[in-house]
TrEMBL record:
Coiled coil: none annotated. It comes from Arsenicitalea aurantiaca. GO terms for cellular component: cytosol. It comes from the Bacteria. Catalyzes the interconversion of L-alanine and D-alanine. May also act on other amino acids. Substrate binds at residues 139, 313. The modification N6-(pyridoxal phosphate)lysine is found at residue 41. Belongs to the alanine racemase family. It catalyses: L-alanine = D-alanine. Its cofactor is pyridoxal 5'-phosphate. This is Alanine racemase. Pathway: Amino-acid biosynthesis; D-alanine biosynthesis; D-alanine from L-alanine: step 1/1. NCBIfam families: alr.
């Protein structure tokens, strides 16, 4: 990937691949008895697909879940002997591609199943695939009442899927009743497909009870340091650090306003730093502040300071009046995500989830660097 800041004057996005590896190993320990996969969709949650795949493989991961065929092809090119699932399923007419690239579609519907079984028949080969049944998301997957048709179609030709899976809607809220309902529906479904490995848990499912582990777990967000389970301390290591430079310092007086819409009036004489990150970099506009509402925060030298006024396309203004003992200066880097402010601190302030903060990293006009990986060789 071309550096987003060829001059080196833009921001810095640092990805700690050692933390990614520690996170995978920690989750693998929790899921003893089940295989631990790795969900790498959306550019490995914004951290970089190729680098993340290499690091995860070196840590021991062998089962990778991409969303799209494009992502899956990249995983395959990076890891010749990994098992690669395509969560979005089999795209119409794409069976040849999947077979050629040794991708396993997650079969989500009867039309997908028919097309895959035809490919098996025409090649006289039981091409591996996972079957996904919907147990309460109403997103992808067979309806449960299609199980008997699925069974009949595969029995006709003596086909067996590699895995039966479903996906939890509320795993981040462990006491939500829907978890029990989905688990019960999934367990009942498995009676109809005996001796086929099963998979139900995302990160939160994996972290909240062995009964959801079955034979394979599919963590995503927790690998990348995000909070999987609401209202609990997040035990994962932070993977991402994003720093962006201060463009200008300025003094402003009580009663003056800051930014578009004049949404915030200063209530004291203030020292402001203009930071070179805006909504075009994934610093969401919902991190804007006003007199009525606290917005996002950033950290300078390990100290947290608030956003003032609206987030612009390329800039945000922060109040550094309280840093008078160590006045920030133009060019100095400001921590947007990192040790002081985690992904979820920023996400909470923006009214969103860590997943969205992370996948927005792709937008940041910053130079990426990777460090910390073990066992990559070369
Ligand atoms: C994204 C996804 C996961 C991973 O979920 P996390 O909450 O990020 O752990 C697992 N399974 C499926 C089907 C997914 O779409």
């Amino acid at each position: 990937m071309a550096p987003a800041s060829p001059t080196g004057l833009g921001g810095r996005l640092s990805i700690d691949l050692g933390a990614l590896q520690r996170n995978w190993r920690a989750l693998d320990k929790v899921s003893t008895g089940a295989l631990t996969g790795a969900v790498v969709k959306a550019d490995a949650y914004g951290t970089g697909l190729v680098a993340a795949c290499r690091a995860l493989y070196a840590a021991g991961a062998r089962f990778f879940f991409a969303a799209t065929p494009d992502e899956a092809v990249t995983v395959r090119a990076t890891l010749p002997d990994a098992h690669v699932f395509v969560l979005d399923g089999l795209f119409p007419g794409a069976a040849r591609l999947y077979v050629g690239e040794r991708l396993m579609p997650v079969i989500n519907s009867l039309p997908m199943l028919e097309e895959w079984l035809e490919a098996c028949l025409s090649r006289n080969e039981a091409l591996p695939a996972a079957f996904h049944f919907d147990t309460g998301m109403n997103r992808l997957g067979f309806r449960l009442n299609e199980a008997s048709i699925v069974k009949r179609l595969i029995e006709q030709i003596g086909y067996q899927p590699q895995m039966i899976m479903s996906h939890l809607a509320c795993a981040d809220q462990p006491s939500h009743e829907k978890n029990r309902t989905q688990l019960a529906l999934f367990s009942a479904l498995l009676q109809q497909f005996p001796n086929i490995p099963a998979s139900l848990a995302n990160s939160a499912g994996l972290m909240t009870g062995r009964e959801k582990h079955f034979q394979m777990v599919r963590p995503g967000i927790a690998l990348y340091g995000g909070r999987a389970v609401a209202g609990r301390r997040n035990p994962m290591s932070q993977v991402v650090t994003l720093e962006m430079p201060i463009l200008q310092m300025r003094e402003a007086r009580t009663g003056e306003t800051v930014g578009y819409g004049a949404s915030q009036t200063l209530t004291r004489d203030s020292r402001l730093a203009v930071v070179g990150i805006g909504y075009a970099d994934g610093f969401l506009r919902s991190l804007s502040a006003s007199n009525a509402r606290l917005g996002g925060r950033v950290a300078i030298g390990g100290r947290i300071v608030p956003v003032v006024g609206r987030v612009s396309m390329d800039m945000v203004v922060v109040d550094v009046t309280d840093l008078a003992d160590q006045p920030p200066r133009p060019g100095q880097m400001v921590e947007i995500l990192g040790r002081t402010l985690g992904v979820d601190d920023q996400a909470d302030a923006a009214g969103t989830i860590g997943y969205e903060m992370l996948t927005n990293l792709r937008l940041a006009r910053a130079t990426r660097s990777y460090f910390g990986a073990e066992g990559l060789g070369g």
